[in-house]
Fold this protein.
Amino acid sequence: MLAKRLIPCLDVRDGKVVKGVQFRNHEIIGDIVPLAQRYAQAGADELVFYDITASSDGRVVDKSWVRRIAEVIDIPFCVAGGIKTVADAGKILEMGADKISVNSPALARPELINELNHHFGQQCVVVGIDSFFDVASGQYQVYQFTGDESRTQKTQWLTRDWVAEVLKRGAGEIVLNCMNQDGVRQGYDIAQLRSIRDICTVPLIASGGAGTMAHFTDVFNQADVDGALAASVFHKGIIEIAALKAKLIADGISIRP
Amino acid sequence: MQLVIVDTGCANISSVYFAFKRLGVDATISRDAKLIKAADKVLLPGVGTAHNAMAKLQQAELIDTLQSLQQPLLGICLGMQLLTGHSMEGNVACLNLIPGEVLPMQSAGLRLPHMGWNTLKNIGNHALMRGFTETDYVYFVHSFAVASSRYSLALCHYGSDFAAVIGKDNVAGAQFHPERSGKTGARLLQNFLEWQL
């Protein structure tokens, strides 16, 4: 039976793993390669490396760390951040990444999704979506350039509409980051994930809000997501992956031991 | 041990190269027919579409070379699908080394692509499958698959059964990604290195 995936996310800035609260105030957690290796050995099912500097400051980012990760890691990993063209994506895949994830550049130019699908196949193309619940309008809206506070901005897209759009254009997986929950460890945004699950025909990964083991059980049971992504609870040792897997298996969730 | 990874220009070549490196084998990545013919073992990687991959093999004039190999040949993921007779992904003739056809997955409503870790079943008695059990998980990413047949060395179930590993004579293929399947995947690659015809 297909297992639900546990996916530590490593936010990368200038070649170091960092973590902020609600996308801000980043602190350095450590070097990329040893952290990646530790997670693979601990039983992570997949890793995501999110270069948070890339999209927001427009410069060419050194991605040589992708090759160093590919050398030591024997589980799948995805690279996100600053991939604006087929050529950018091709370089990262060539260095050994299994998937590439696009976010702001896809909002700026949605055809990018079609192009990536055409060149590398649907299975390589992940679309990351930063979704923020706007209390005033009562709606979830898509934000871009979330890696940099000064440039973070609301787009014209409602989250549901953008999900439908990226599916139409050939996305192979969606990572839905619920910004209101990010870094505050109060649980995944089950209501939003359920509503997106209804329209999402490809794998859906929950992101933002994991704080306790029960949060993972809840998101798998109540929102039927294919994977759960988390950062701080893993980086800070609040949750050990082995213990989490044992708990999820005990809760009857399909998990790779 | 001279292992050649066929340079299909596909994306997962580095990961496959590094996976063998972790097992102590420094593979050669090449599209030179002479090198491929002279290798002890040949690996055919592949990510992308069957249509593009066959076109690349044709451009590199490697079709005959791959079809006439006598030494062990292992295809991975799309590389495995290329070993069959025909793929419906782009409706393209493949290498026809193992009877079978690549069809869209019949997932009975389950989400596609079939992406993630899944278990194997009906594991055959073949050198490649040594040490494998039905509780082992391996990593799949695909939307097309080869149906179960007498050439299946292991099956997987996702909505319906499909071939996870196929083999005939000196040729074998894995639908999953051994280079990305942790210790279990490394076992398949190690079995391939130790495979004696």
The domain at 3-194 of chain B is CATH 3.40.50.880 (Rossmann fold). Chain B touches chain A through 38 residues (CB under 8 Å). The CA atoms of residues 19 and 179 of chain B lie 5 Å apart.
